[in-house]
Write a structure and sequence with these properties.
Blueprint: E1 2-6, H1 11-22, E2 26-31, E3 46-50, H2 56-66, E4 70-73, H3 80-85, H4 87-107, E5 113-117, H5 144-163, E6 167-172, E7 175-176, H6 185-197, E8 202-206, E9 212-213, E10 216-217, H7 218-231, E11 237-240, E12 246-247, H8 248-258, E13 263-267, H9 285-291, H10 299-313
Parallel strand pairs: 1-2, 1-4, 2-3, 4-5, 5-6, 6-11, 7-10, 8-13
Antiparallel strand pairs: 9-12
Helix pairs in contact: 1-7, 2-4, 4-5, 6-8, 6-10, 8-10
């Protein structure tokens, strides 16, 4: 069986490639020109294709050459700050790039399973009621990034319904692990700690840490992607999360507890975003019931792995 991953050299894409190869898939994927390949170091048997998802003909040529049985669409501008600073680029990549992929699937590869990576961020205002949010909750995004992902999410449903394609939509909550880059929250904290370990300790700067998030290890998330491609129902969306929330302050304290030097924390107002939600409670029961997925990696192990990754990198 052949699998194609857009954004294969990204944070989740690289782990997905590893998992698929272990399961015996023949794996290929797209990379954007000029992006680093460090995440793919040591992963064998990969076919990499440099292309821009907004270049319809190049994307079509690559997919027709590979003829995948499964397509995992992960490539995106995924940083909320990037979407705020350049909304046009966010929509060109996230929405128009996805539309190109959907059209090629419709016209040339109607038999391939297509997994679209959306986000729990699309629930937006629905998350402010502090209730457990399932897949039927209203989609009320609060950022450019979330709007772009909501657009892809809805496009996937429309294409599945109108053209009979096997399209499954993943709505992961916050996922973390080694290889995640700054300026995202935990990589920023871990890298600052490692820098201070070299100098005997000091102060790290963080944004609002009085927020609750449901964190899942990226390696568990990509396992969910694979199960969804295999067992998910076409046109359906699935939340991916651990099913329990943690306060950001707790994770910061745990990382500091793993540090080799004394660390103090300072709140930096410039790192706080007004659009951030203080709490997210996501329901993962649909995914568990229909695919049998369960998270297998503890938050404690993930934090250790993140810190060790940055110790090797810095």
């Amino acid at each position: 069986m052949k699998a194609f991953i857009t954004g294969i050299n990204g944070f989740a894409g690289s782990y997905l490639a590893e998992s698929l190869i272990k399961k015996g898939r023949q794996v290929s994927g797209s990379i954007q020109s000029g992006t680093p390949l460090d995440n793919l170091a040591g992963i064998p048997k990969l076919s990499l294709i440099t292309l821009d998802l907004n270049d319809y003909r190049s994307l079509e040529k690559a997919l027709l050459a590979e003829k995948p049985d499964e397509i995992y669409h992960l490539a995106a501008i995924s940083n909320v700050n990037d979407s705020l600073s350049d909304p046009r680029r966010c929509f060109e990549v996230n929405v128009l790039g996805s539309l190109n992929l959907l059209e090629i699937s419709r016209l040339k590869l109607p038999g391939a399973a297509l997994l679209l990576a959306s986000s729990s961020e699309i629930y937006g205002e629905s998350l402010t009621n502090h209730l457990l949010i399932d897949e039927e909750a209203p989609i009320l995004p609060r950022s450019h990034y979330a709007v772009s992902k909501a657009s892809v999410d809805m496009l996937g449903k429309v294409y599945a319904k109108n053209y009979g394609l096997k399209i499954i939509i993943a709505r992961p909550a916050s996922y973390i692990g080694p290889r995640q880059t700054k300026p995202l929250f935990l990589p920023s904290v871990a890298s600052q700690i490692v820098e201070l370990e070299k100098t005997g300790g000091g102060e790290i700067r963080v944004g609002n840490i009085e927020m609750d998030r449901d964190f899942t290890d990226v390696r568990d998330v990509v396992d969910a992607y694979i199960l969804m491609a295999e067992k998910g129902r076409s046109g359906e969306a699935y939340n991916i999360c651990r099913g329990e929330t943690r306060r950001l302050k707790e994770l910061v304290d745990r990382l500091i507890g793993l540090a080799r030097v004394p660390i103090k924390v300072t709140i930096d107002p410039e790192r706080c975003r007004p659009s951030d939600l203080t709490s997210m409670k996501i329901d993962n029961r649909k995914l568990q019931k229909e695919t049998g997925w369960r998270p297998g990696i503890s938050i404690e192990k993930t934090l250790v792995d993140i810190l060790e990754y940055w110790r090797k990198l810095v």
